[in-house]
Amino acid sequence: xxxxxxxxxxxxxxxxxxxxxxxxxxxxxxxxxxxxxxxxxxxxxxxxxxxxxxxxxxxxxxxxxxxxxxxxxxxxxxxxxxxxxxxxxxxxxxxxxxxxxxxxxxxxxxxxxxxxxxxxxxxxxxxxxxxxxxxxxxxxxxxxxxxxxxxxxxxxxxxxxxxxxxxxxxxxxxxxxxxxxxxxxxxxxxxxxxxxxxxxxxxxxxxxxxxxxxxxxxxxxxxxxxxxxxxxxxxxxxxxxxxxxxxxxxxxxxxxxxxxxxxxxxxxxxxxxxxxxxxxxxxxxxxxxxx
Length: 291
Prior knowledge:
Layout lengths: L1 H38 L3 E6 L2 H11 L1 H6 L2 E6 L3 H9 L5 E6 H11 L4 E5 L1 E2 L3 E3 L14 E5 L2 H13 L26 E5 L13 E4 L1 H6 L4 H4 L2 E2 L11 E5 L7 H10 L2 H11 L4 E2 L5 H4 L1
Parallel strand pairs: 1-2, 1-3, 7-8, 7-9
Antiparallel strand pairs: 3-11, 4-11, 5-12, 6-9, 6-10
Keywords: Lipoprotein, Membrane, Palmitate, Signal
Protein name: MetQ/NlpA family ABC transporter substrate-binding protein
Family: Belongs to the NlpA lipoprotein family.
């Protein structure tokens, strides 16, 4: 009887040890799993519109994003003010659509403090026409279609000045208008349009100022189809596109990785191929735009 009890006790002890070991292993697995979950980066929601949606969907699937440990969710939001408002309200974490000038204009008008943390590209604005072969051919009294929003209107006027068609004051800024023109030797006549309609009004006016996003949608290549377009220099740096977030997120490590992801070699090759070189990469520190 005692011998049986001894054997039974031995079995019970062995069973208890096995159960304890299993429990310990399970706890360890759960702990390790918990560690893995906590180490995974949070999903960053990036808001974009038009061709930028395509670009960021590609980046979200890229090997570069996986290697950086960044998980991206791309939200399409149509309209610049709507995209910025969605960012202010935290509906998206980052937005990718606007120029430095546009951001400054939005912040000034809305009282917001959205912050740019990376540069991406310059999409050259171009002067398009069905009437003339070159800038020198532009005739007296030509009608020019210009954007009805402040940032693109001022940008268009600076482009006309660069082309030698008008003269603007030295202090002309991102909120400047046609009333600021100090010399207009060809007596150009300006009409305001919704700048998303640019390609559709080409036959109705003599010149149209069209941003590249809209030009691409109208199957126009700014490098080939415009008679004059922006180049990357200090005069156009306000038109460089940027990544924007809330001020509180501007130091977030995962958010900051997005600038590097945009300029990844694989990503740049894709953008070059898809957009025929019309999204000219600009990889500069934000301080370049602030100077």
